[in-house]
């Protein structure tokens, strides 16, 4: 599972904690649906807020500056909407923070003048930003995300370019509907101009959904292309298109990893005359997963009594039901305390 880092990353950490980290841009629309790069340089703005900026070198060689989110805060900034003139018939304006001055900044350098490799990342700060992974999935890249442990060893911490603000999709849909009606253009015509198929229609729907269903918000690049077509104003430009980098990490579940669909448990020899005994390890895992301490375990097909024995070993009571009377002797032998109730 991927979790944002909980501490105030940009204030309490050193710049080398993000220098060299991998960056993923999921707002970039192409056949892969994402764009990847790494952090080449780190800056802090000289204004009062002192925002941390990252210079990202993308895999295609392009470079861009992006704000690094303060991880003491939520990954998306919640903003208020106001009506400047008090007229609710107008479109509400978002109250956004001041624009970050990307020009007035100071580079934050690491203690080493040479290339630096982040201990938490599988990317380096060299121009190529190549993988230095040497684990068991090296020859099978398709399996690199097979488990939290594998993903952690491969990617460690990384940055994702996300929308900076929490956007109210119905407000954007109303706004775009207004300008589309004013322009007299259909969604199919918009799709054709943008080179899409059945995409633009979602931007004008107010039932926000997922996986291609319901309403959605245009990606930043699509927003500006749509602006050229519809000719709308700039009141929502920053709200929809501003992005920042959010630190992510792959973290195993605190209660342990998912055991998976297949359990590899060795068979266990049993000297008594029963043809299909469970290994005690199998029963133990099931009881620990599904029965609290002091609880009761029910086995309607008791057989040799393996469930009863393991339940007693783990401090649970057990109710065993068995059709064949001959197995009762085996159950009594294996379980310390047995109360028998026979049914004619």
Short description:
With 344 residues, this protein is α+β, with helices and mostly antiparallel strands.
The poorly predicted ranges are: 1-12, 112-134, 136-149
Classify the secondary structure makeup into a structural class: alpha+beta
Secondary structure tally, helices:
9
The share of residues in extended strands comes to 15-25%
Radius of gyration: 30 Å
Helix content: 10-25%
Give the helices and strands as they follow along the chain: EHEEEEEEEHEHHHHEHEHEH
| DSSP, total strands | 12
Largest sheet: 6 strands, mixed, barrel
- Strands ordered across the widest β-sheet: 2-3-4-5-10-9
Shape, principal axes of CA atoms: elongated
For the record, the count of structural domains works out to 3
Report mean pLDDT, rounded to a whole number: 78
Distance between the termini: 54 Å
Model description:
This protein has 9 helices and 12 strands. It has helices at residues 9-12, 148-155, 169-183, 187-194, 220-230, 237-241, 280-290, 306-313, 327-334; strands at 2-4, 22-25, 35-45, 52-58, 63-68, 81-82, 93-94, 105-107, 157-163, 243-250, 296-299, 317-320. α8 (306-313) links the parallel β11 and β12. It is elongated. The model is unreliable at 1-12, 112-134 and 136-149 (pLDDT under 50).
């Amino acid at each position: 599972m991927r979790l944002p880092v909980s501490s105030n990353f940009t204030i309490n950490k050193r710049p080398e904690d993000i220098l060299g980290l991998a960056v993923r841009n999921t707002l970039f629309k192409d056949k892969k649906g994402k764009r990847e790069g790494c952090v080449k340089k780190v800056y802090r703005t000289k204004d009062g807020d002192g925002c941390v900026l990252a210079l990202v070198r993308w895999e295609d060689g392009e470079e861009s500056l992006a704000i690094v989110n303060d991880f003491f805060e939520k990954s998306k900034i919640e903003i208020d909407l106001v009506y400047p003139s008090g007229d609710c018939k107008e479109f509400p304006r978002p109250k956004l923070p001041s624009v970050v001055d990307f020009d007035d900044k100071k580079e934050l350098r690491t203690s080493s003048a040479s290339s630096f490799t982040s201990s938490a990342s599988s990317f380096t700060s060299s121009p190529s930003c190549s993988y230095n992974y040497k684990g068991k999935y090296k020859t099978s890249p398709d399996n690199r995300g097979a488990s939290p442990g594998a993903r952690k060893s491969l990617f460690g911490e990384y940055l994702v370019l996300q929308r900076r603000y929490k956007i109210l999709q119905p407000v954007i849909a109303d706004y775009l509907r207004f300008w589309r009606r004013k322009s007299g253009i259909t969604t199919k015509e918009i799709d054709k101009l943008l080179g899409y198929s059945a995409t633009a229609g979602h931007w004008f729907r107010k039932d926000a959904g997922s996986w291609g269903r319901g309403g959605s918000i245009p990606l930043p690049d699509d927003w500006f292309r749509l602006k050229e077509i519809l000719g709308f104003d700039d009141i929502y430009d920053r709200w929809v298109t501003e992005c920042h980098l959010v630190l992510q990490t792959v973290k195993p579940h605190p209660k342990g990893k998912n055991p998976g669909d297949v359990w590899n448990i060795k068979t266990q020899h049993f000297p008594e005359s029963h043809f299909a005994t469970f290994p005690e390890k199998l029963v133990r895992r099931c009881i620990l997963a599904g029965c609290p301490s002091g609880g009761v375990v029910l086995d309607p097909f008791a057989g040799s009594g393996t469930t009863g024995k393991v339940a007693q070993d783990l401090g649970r009571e057990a109710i065993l039901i068995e059709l064949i009377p001959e197995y009762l002797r085996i159950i009594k032998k294996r379980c310390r305390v047995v109360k028998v109730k026979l049914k004619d």
